[in-house]
């Protein structure tokens, strides 16, 4: 019995500890309760997680709440992967761009992020936020800008007066998404 106990004790020091992946959900309208939930999840994940997977399916919502979520994700002490399972429109596009890695499911889309009100000051501020977030993770800032500002033109991608919304295949071709995957397990 003593030999068994000693061998188990010796092995326990060499056993690898598997850390969990925290899965957080951005589904439905983006509002302040959602930003509190995501920021709390990011803080908890910093304690013992290997990473965070943020699943996104939203038409958008409050940009101030989305900016709070973006700030929590980009300052995370563990890796963050965003996963667009349906739509990442409007404020949801900013959240999707805030992952160090981004995955999209077949049939998903991202973009259509022109703010309301669309006055020049608000458009400029949000465009800068999208560009800065894209640049953080080596994504094309002009693609991100075209999601917010209809004055941005990118030959072969979007013309003047159009807002950019990308289907998953386009997002992959343009380097906005890192992976196309059908399920959470495939992303992980």
Describe the structure.
- With 188 residues, this protein is an alpha/beta fold.
- Helices cover 44% and strands 20% of the residues.
- Strands 1, 2, 3, 4, 5, 6 and 7 form a seven-stranded mixed β-sheet that branches.
- Helix 2 (32-48) packs parallel to helix 3 and helix 5 (120-136) packs antiparallel against helix 6 (141-148).
Uncertain regions: pLDDT < 50 for 5+ in a row? 1-11
Task: Report how far the terminal alpha carbons are from each other.
Answer: 41 Å
* Computed CA radius of gyration, to the nearest angstrom: 19 Å
Apparent shape: globular
Q: Report the sheet with the most strands, covering strand number, pairing sense and barrel closure.
A: 7 strands, mixed
SSE arrangement, N to C: HEHEHEHEEHHEHEH
User: Percent of residues in helical segments?
Assistant: 40-55%
- Tally of DSSP helical segments: 8
State the oligomer: single chain
The amount of beta strand, in percent, is 15-25%
Query: Please, what is the average pLDDT?
Result: 93
Structural class: alpha/beta
User: What is the β-strand count?
Assistant: 7
